Amino acid sequence: MKRVTIADVAAQAGVSKSTVSHALSGKRPISIATRERIQHAIDSLGYSPNPVAQRLAGGRSKTIGYVFPLYTNHIAGLEMKFIASTANEINQADYAFMLLTHPADDVDSLHQFAVRGLVDGFILMQIRLDDPRVDLLQQAGIPFVLVGRCADNRDLSYVDVNLVSAMDQCLDHLSDLGHQHIAYLHQDAPELGFTQRAQQAFFEGCEQHGVDPLVYPCRLSFDSGAAAMATLLEQHPEVTAVITWNNTVAWGAIDVAETRGVHIPGDLSIISFGHSNFTYPARLPLSVVDIHPEEMAAQAAQLLLQKLDGEPVESQRLIKPTLILRQSTAVSAVKSR
Hints:
It is a single chain. Helix 9 links the parallel strand 6 (181-187) and strand 7 (212-218). The protein has 13 helices and twelve strands. With 337 residues, the protein is an alpha/beta fold. Helix 1 (6-13) crosses helix 2, helix 5 packs parallel to helix 12 (293-308) and helix 8 runs parallel beside helix 9. The chain has a six-stranded parallel beta sheet, with helices on both faces. Strands 7-6-8-9-10-12 form a six-stranded mixed beta sheet, with helices on both faces.
């Protein structure tokens, strides 16, 4: 359903937008007959006037909605990088920043912001392969940018990390160290584009390197990473390297491994996605895939601002990640024998 604007009310009532604005604000006298026509148009169109719309008389709210569903009761370091970088770009452009954290499938809440004109555009996070928020905003005619990608991205604007490059860098490094049994502890969210693309890149990369791939799902928590690693070690004691989708997961995995006498990195190398400033006490510095969240967030915000200004833009961008080597990877114990 397309958002009803003050212009639609004016056209229906046969008056100017300024007349509708004056009728809503009460700042200028409007004849009873005209006021009745305007009210009839409001009722028939389902227009929902709000303080922002009344103040701006159909203009911009100068607010951008940042839709970042949170699936845990805490905000991790990686999430804070996305949020802070986006807010900085938006504030510098003299726009207000509104953080919306309701679940991705709660389209009703997003619909309320969309149709009432509370924001000029949206940046969406946690993108699903088939995302109902995309359909809603397309139908409403509201500008938006994705941080991530759907299955079908025709006519969509997005900024995303190049997961093929990320996995290639990880597997190149681990293969050079002699690892032949590599596992990926992936996000337990098959509906997300990140999850599917990362797994596909992992399988394809393992095939190219002649490596035996293993995959185990886990949620965004220390305990879930620990549980996934425990299962992995029980079922595949031959594994010598692990890639995790998040560093919180990595810390849980390392904790279980070391409790079982598996030395990191002597017996088991670990690389984590999601470079974060947060560290886990008494743990060695992780080798990480820096997906450059600040750059992704900043480019998404800039892209949306350009769209709002009507500027021609390159609407689909992939950010190349960087593998940062620290102390959690080493030559495979099997190779060194």
